[in-house]
Amino acid sequence: MDLQLLASVIVTLFVIMDPPGTVPIFMSLTAQLSAKDRNRSAFQALLVATGVIVVFAIFGQSILNYMHISLAALQGAGGLLLVLIALQLLTGSTSGEENAAKYKNVAFVPLGTPLMAGPGAIVAVMVFVQQSGELSEYLAVGLGIAVVLASLYLAMRFAGVVQRVLGENGVELVTRIAGLLLSAIAVQMIADSVTAFVKGVA
Length: 202
Hints:
- The chain is built from nine helices and no strands.
């Protein structure tokens, strides 16, 4: 197994999906639920996110080909969207409480998607799959996705414990750091997209 690729997948998706940053949003969205219903929502959100990620990992390129969209274009769009998400993390502007009043089942929307399986994660997974060519690389990508999804589920499952351990200031600090790293990843994705377009034109 390609351990370097595995580490790259885990770090990239961990920063994009941001398990620690999910804790305060999850707590606000499920504040009115019982502990049992909260745990069920966490599991349902995991299933939704897994389904979306797997579908785009397997069929994403076919979907793009059918719609005549290049991976570079999707990568650039994903980078721009990640900039917006990163700005929200850096400024602390989340709309969890507002979304809670809009959706009947927060496990599907906005928890499962776009919070967990958003455009940034989808593009990142598709890029990793596109760059893989051997079985060991595909296994590394798959394992990396599984590790990050598992960390997301654990973060939601034990959100109360995590919040008590880190404290309000600790969760906020981790969220800001994640926003900074995410903005760097977004810029890199946009730069890679522009480079791919230039090479394609040349």
